Amino acid sequence: MSLHKQASVEKFKNRKALIGIVGLGYVGLPLMLRYNAIGFNVLGIDIDSGKVARLNNGESYIEHIPAAKISAARSSGFEATTDFSRAAECDALILCVPTPLNKYREPDMSFVINTTDALKPYMRAGQVVSLESTTYPGTTEEELLPRVQEGGLVVGEDIFLVYSPEREDPGNPNFETRTIPKIIGGDTAACLEVGIALYEQAIDKVVTVSSTKAAEMTKLLENIHRAVNIGLVNEMKIVADRMGIDIFEVVDAAATKPFGFTAYYPGPGLGGHCIPIDPFYLTWKAREYGLHTRFIELSGEVNQAMPEYVVGKLVDGLNDQGKALKGSRVLVLGIAYKKNVDDMRESPSVEIMELLEAKGCVVAYSDPHVPVFPTMREHSFALSSEPLNTENLASFDAVVLATDHDKFDYDLIKSSARLIIDSRGKYRDSAAHIIKA
Q1: Confidence (pTM)
Q2: CATH classification of 220-301 is 3.90.190.20, yes or no?
Q3: How far apart are CA 38 and CA 202, in angstroms?
Q4: DSSP result, 65-131
Q5: C-alpha triplet 207, 284, 24: angle, nearest 5°
Q6: Cβ-count burial of 39 within 10 angstroms (0-12 exposed, 13-18 middle, 19+ buried)?
Q7: Which of 163, 253, 269, 277 to pair with 230, CA 20 to 30 A apart?
Q8: Domain ranges in the chain?
Q9: Matching CATH topology for 3-210 and 305-436?
Q10: Which CATH number fits domain 305-436: 3.40.30.10, 3.30.470.20, 3.30.43.10, 3.40.50.720?
């Protein structure tokens, strides 16, 4: 056993290690809180000086993480910094940075690579480096391994490299960081051993796989499974609608089967930083092996067509009332990508808003979790959330229910709106002014 490995394992087991978390977003922040809660000192590193200042002031910028928790962490060994040189102090460097797609639907690895390059000069013997960002199989081996070893450190002897994909589900009250089993793959057996020592302190169940590649592929399979099943049920929705059948009734009925069926529900498209993006990581990497991932690409096509489908239903509804889409006032209900969160990434609601605006609609939105439309890389609307009251709802030609937050008053919406386009199956009755989409 190498002395470095032994010392590292001991440090994590007796909780004397300093945990470094790089990237303080929806993944990094809950992980920080978990390590802090069990007595570790945690250093958060982020390039965003605004985020760092807010955290150091005990503030939160993620709705489901209360400021009180950040404040408590600050007073018990948590600190945030933009200074990458402080990575040298850390015993673990856990990378939680974005892995988006570029406009050609190819992996944008710039965040992972730039972060690793920024940390590289400060890596030292005894550290464990863990990548949590979703990525294609081979990333840890091909991109991180050579960079970590550039300065003469040997992975598996001096420094330890693992891949352990994040599995956060924001807004899900049934699971938290601690209770979601953690997959780990190591570059070597020694790497895996140190990785286990790092994570088993904080996570109830650690699941090991034979390599970093297998761990990377595991995360992709989880997300592809979801994307394909949502694509399937979205396609079924269109067929059911044409046949005059309520797809939500059918899914609920099928879900009573106690084996062999998992309920997935249709919607206005796919959102979030995982499901619409991650499957294409495998599509891209598979090309290197001369393979085509037809299931992934087909489900992507179906899911990407959903915002257009919802707009088509709106066109039909307005048309029946003798109105054109152009010039109509339309209120989009819910612009976060899923219910009860404030996360806007890849939200199909925003795509619906853009399609409507392009066709001459006067677009507004209401979302109790997003008071002001945020600055986004791809989209911009100078809008604030509309209050939901009888008078305001009635002033719109139509409302599109895009994200079914629990905070919405669905009875008020139903009684006040002139026309409702329901893409989430909230209204099961067949009222004349409700169109299922």
Answers
A1: 0.93
A2: no
A3: 7
A4: S-HHHHHHHHTTTEEEES-GGGGGG-SEEEE-----B-TTS-B--HHHHHHHHHHGGG--TT-EEEE
A5: 55
A6: exposed
A7: 163
A8: 3-210, 220-301, 305-436
A9: yes
A10: 3.40.50.720
Angle formed at CA 405 by CA 401 and CA 409, multiple of 5 degrees: 80
Per the structure block, which two tokens stand in for 183? 């997959």
Identify the bridge partners of residue 384 per DSSP, sorted by sequence position. Answer: 372
The owner of tokens 């179906």 is 302
Report which secondary-structure segment, H or E, holds 206.
Answer: strand 206-209
Classify the phi-psi angles of 97: left when phi > 0, otherwise alpha if psi is within -120 to 50, otherwise beta: beta
CB neighbours of residue 396 within 10 Å: 21
Identity at 201, one-letter amino acid code = Q
Is 274 labeled as catalytic in the residue annotation? yes
Burial of 344 (0-12, 13-18, 19+ CB in 10 A): buried
* pLDDT means over runs of 10, the chain (437 residues): 87 96 95 96 97 97 94 97 98 96 88 97 97 96 97 96 93 88 97 98 97 97 94 97 96 97 94 79 93 93 95 97 97 95 91 96 97 84 96 98 97 97 92 94
Active-site option among 90, 96, 274, 361:
274
Quote the distance between the C-alpha of residue 322 and its chain's center: 40
Report the CATH number of the 3-210 domain. 3.40.50.720
Strand runs labelled E in 223-366: 329-333, 362-366
> Can you tell me the distance from the alpha carbon of 257 to that of 174, in angstroms, rounded to the nearest whole number?
22
User: Residue 42: CB partners within 8 Å, gap ≥ 6?
Assistant: 18, 19, 20, 21, 32, 35, 36, 73, 77, 78, 79
Q: How many CA atoms lie within 13 A of 31 on its CB side?
A: 30
Per 3-state DSSP, the chain is made up of helix, strand and coil in percentages (nearest 5) of 40, 15, 45
